[in-house]
Amino acid sequence: MNKNPLLWFSIVVFITVMSSATSPWPQSVDTTPPEQPVKLVFIHHSTGENWLTDGYGDLGMRLAENNYFVSDTNYGWGPEAIGDRTDIPNWTEWFASDNTPVYLSALFQENEQHANYTRSRTDPGGENSIILFKSCFPNSELTGSPNDPPGEYEDLSVSGAKYVYNTILPTFAAHPDKLFIVITAPPLSDNTYAENARAFNTWLVNDWLHENNYPLHNVAVFDFYNILTSPDAHHQISNGKIEYNPAANNTLYYPSGDDHPSIEGSRKATEEFIPLLNHFYHLWQATSPIEAVPVPLSSTPADSQPVSQATVSTGSTNLIDNFEAGPPAGTSGWEGYFQDHTDTSIICEANPASAQEGSSSLQFEFDVSADSWATCGIYFDSNQNWSTGTGVRFFIHANQAAIPFDVDVYGGSPAERTTYVFHSQTPPGSDSGWIQIEIPWASILRAEWEENPGTPLDPSQISGFSIGIATPIQERLQGTIRLDDLRLAGINPAGNDNPLPQLSSTSDDQAKTQLPNLPCIGSLLFVILVNGLLWVFRRK
After folding, report:
1. pTM (whole model) above 0.70
2. Pairing of the two strands 219-222 and 179-183
3. Per-residue DSSP letters for 307-374?
4. What is the rounded distance in angstroms from the CA atom of residue 330 to the CA atom of residue 386?
5. At the fourth CATH level, which superfamily is domain 38-287?
6. Neighbour tally for 61: CB within 10 Å
7. Which residues are registered as beta bridge partners of 398?
8. DSSP letters of 475-519?
9. CA–CA dist 230, 254 (Å, integer)
10. In sequence order, what are the residues at sequence separation of 6 or more whose Cβ sits closer than 8 angstroms to the Cβ of residue 238?
11. Distance (Å, rounded) from C-alpha 369 to C-alpha 507?
């Protein structure tokens, strides 16, 4: 490795970390309502209807107050009256059967209401973005034992229920543009199977996604069951954090004369759910607005089974780099950087070993030491105007799914780059095929350690682009990420197969630099205090 240390600038850095953090990016809690109306559909029966109803649970009215346009399903709804069937074993029919595309199409387009709740907003148009689904209280009568592992078929047992939720996860991963929220079934007054119900619902909240290594933030769980077992049982936002307090009691504390939750219990659930929903929404929007389309590897033998039959248009438009025609205009090509004085090695270069289309792709191979970072990027001599696009899109292929990585877009002048970042993970299917990613400008925000963090990017003043790896403390990260067909998103003029021109430039006397700004540290929270410490970069 050639050593070419470059002096960046003098700063003092105080690093604060969460030693137990498992996420590759900070997960701040935002309970504010969405800025624009968001369409939501709720799959339910009688308990959900009571929860939604004005004067009972008031959920529908409160959702409207928080900028959600709510629709719902009930008995008799949908193709083949699928709305009749909402027990836990039925979720595989909804979300993992041959009829799933038909059911989802109807569900995403549903805009009517089947319960008596206030919809104070007009339909904003488009599909439902959020899907809530809930089984009713008989589903808390789960047989088996509390610690039973997932089984091999669906039924009303602990193992059968775990099988169901594991089975439907791939469908959720295939729709990262939707937010799916599981509402657990309410408790029974009878305690025969109460311990099983408690164990299963706690598994859903704490272990389900983790055990499946689920990499996206488009699936969440609200423990409606827990809320209804005690006044001291909570699943809510408290003091800026998610508070999950299971109760000692495992049966229904808020009866209404039968096992339907009372007005008091339903309203308690509403008060705790709304802020949590807002948090789920903002986390999903910040980390998972990705359109993923599995396609076969270009190097896959003709007689092998492709990853997916889905096709994707790869028309030659608004090309930034196809990794075949040499460095993009105004750059020195793709360059790798990593933190100095660390046991890190990287490869950042075009490589013909694999390509989504054409003869080569970008190979970013990394072995990054703990509590460190590495980037692979291009840096322009003069500012580029990318505002004709709605964002960036590219194909990605990795040696494994769920690798935490950042997409960094640099603003400011080439002499004083500022970093805007989108935190993500290599999506499901990217370990076996090429996946197309599209990231809108609105999702690429000023980095946490920069001045005015979270402010939007100006796509008319672009000075660089990179992908980056950030390792949590005490955890080394190794892998390979490949990129191909890097383009602007959102516009499609035919026949433009050339690298983007230098559409706008800064003054000629600006100092040129090949050095990117400080890359994303992911799960580390940087508090930067100016006055004294030198950072030195090592360049591949």
Report:
1. no
2. parallel
3. S-S--------SEEE-SSSSSPTTS---EEEEETTSS-EEEEEEETT--SSSS-EEEEEEEE-SS-EE
4. 14
5. SGNH hydrolase (3.40.50.1110)
6. 19
7. 481
8. --EEEEEEEEEEEEES---TT--SPPP--S---TTSPP--PPPPP
9. 8
10. none
11. 39
- Which amino acid type is present at position 312? V
Overall average pLDDT of the 101-105 stretch: 94
Tokens coding 252: 């229904």
Report which of 289, 467, 319, 449 is spatially closest to residue 384, judged by C-alpha positions.
Answer: 319
Closest CA to 160 of 183, 141, 175, 137: 141
Question: How many Cα atoms are found within 13 Å in the side-chain-facing hemisphere of 307?
Answer: 20
- In the structure encoding, which two tokens stand for residue 36, read together? 């624009």
CA distance 52 to 6: 60
CA dist list (Å): 116 to 49, 113, 421: 8, 8, 43
Which residues touch 476 (CB under 8 Å, ≥6 apart)? 367, 368, 369, 370
Distance in angstroms (rounded) separating the CA atoms of residues 330 and 140:
63
For residue 533, what are the β-bridge partners?
11
* Contact call for residues 95 and 168 (beta carbons, < 8 A): yes
Per-residue pLDDT for 296 more than 50? no
Q: Are 155 and 164 in contact (CB under 8 A)?
A: no
Exposure letters 10-31 (e unless 16+ CB within 10 A, then b): eeeeeeeeeeebebbbebebbb
User: Distance between CA 219 and CA 221 in Å, rounded?
Assistant: 7
Tokens of 144: 């088996």
- Where do the structural domains in the chain lie, given as residue ranges? 38-287, 290-299+314-523
CA atoms within 13 A on the CB side of 156: 13
d(CA 489, CA 500): 13
Q: Categorize the per-residue pLDDT at 28 as very low, low, confident or very high, splitting at 50, 70 and 90.
A: low
DSSP-based three-state secondary structure for 409:
strand
Q: Which helix (H) or strand (E) holds 367?
A: strand 361-368
For 497-519, how does the pLDDT look when each residue is reduced to its tens digit (9 = 90+)?
A: 333 322 222 223 332 222 333 33
Give the architecture (CATH level 2) of 290-299+314-523.
Answer: Sandwich (2.60)
Give whole-number Cα distances, 461 to 114, 290, 412, 444, 519, in Å: 49, 23, 6, 14, 18
Q: How far apart are CA 368 and CA 346, in angstroms?
A: 8
Q: What is the pLDDT of residue 448?
A: 85
Q: Is residue 213 packed enough to be buried (19+ CB in 10 Å), middle (13-18) or exposed (0-12)? A: exposed
Cβ contacts of residue 132 below 8 Å, gap of 6+?
40, 41, 42, 43, 44, 181, 183
Residue with tokens 């989504």: 356
Angle CA 394–398–399, to nearest 5: 170
Write down the H helix ranges in 230-323: 263-287
Position 430: which residue type? S
